[in-house]
Design goal:
alpha+beta, OB fold (Dihydrolipoamide Acetyltransferase, E2P), de novo design (two linked rop proteins), 6 helices, 8 strands, 27% strand, elongated
């Protein structure tokens, strides 16, 4: 199989043998693809060493899960720094761990592209990350309805709810430590993270779902984030 001029982003790259790299890319047409970039670390005139957050047009050949990169035309290489760099690594790790190889997600690809632009412009990190996590969970079948309760009733802004991982939002009479008001649930639905309580609640909800999908796998970026905040 031969593919040419496929737009995508580098998620992860590591050295391979003497002069090559193993590279994972995220594309709109083919989802996550793993490539061997032969000679990308050599000193030849046309060699291109690939790194995360590089947007390029890729060409490759091969029928197995590991393809051979035949050409790469870089478009832009986002130079993220500090907490925005670590957050970019976090997003890349999520895609690397949670997406199946060559499973296309056009809407998620667009959201990822917009997220990198936002990280590069130093946008609000909490809102950006929570929104991307929700988009990813929706795409891979772990999405949560923030519009209706478990019986199909529209969320009531004045009602308190608990979230059941199996059923969904369940109305309760007395507020509890992890319960949310309908107004807070609706704010998450509208990607309105201006309220700290809403941001924290969404972060907890997303983390529970993501950890279930990771099934024990650790994210290096989480440890980096914890170190920067300690």
């Amino acid at each position: 199989m031969r593919e040419a001029n496929i737009e995508g982003f580098v998620l992860h790259a590591r050295d391979y043998r003497d002069t090559s790299q193993l590279v994972d890319i995220f594309t709109q047409a083919h989802g996550r693809v793993r490539l061997v970039a032969r000679g990308s670390r050599s000193h030849k005139k046309n060699s291109v060493r690939l790194s995360p957050f590089c947007k390029a047009y890729f060409s490759w050949t091969g029928r197995g899960e590991l393809k051979t990169l035949t050409d790469c035309e870089p478009v832009v290489n986002y130079q993220l720094k500090g907490e925005f760099l670590i957050s970019g690594f976090y997003i890349n790790e999520l895609l690397w761990h949670l997406l199946l190889p060559e499973d296309s997600h056009p809407r998620l690809y667009h959201h990822y592209s917009e997220s990198l632009i936002a990280l590069d412009s130093k946008a609000d990190l909490e809102a950006l990350l929570r929104s991307f996590e929700l988009s990813l969970l929706e795409e891979v079948g772990y999405g949560i309805s923030f519009d209706h309760d478990y019986e199909g009733n529209v969320i009531d802004p004045a009602q308190h709810y608990n979230l059941s991982s199996e059923l969904g939002w369940q109305p309760i009479v007395v507020a509890e430590s992890r319960s949310l008001t309908g107004a807070q649930i609706m704010a998450i639905s509208q990607s309105d993270f201006s309220d700290k309580a809403v941001r924290n609640a969404c972060k907890y909800i997303n983390r529970v779902a993501i950890d279930e999908m990771l099934d024990g796998k650790k994210l290096n970026s989480r440890e980096l984030i914890a170190q920067t905040r300690s």
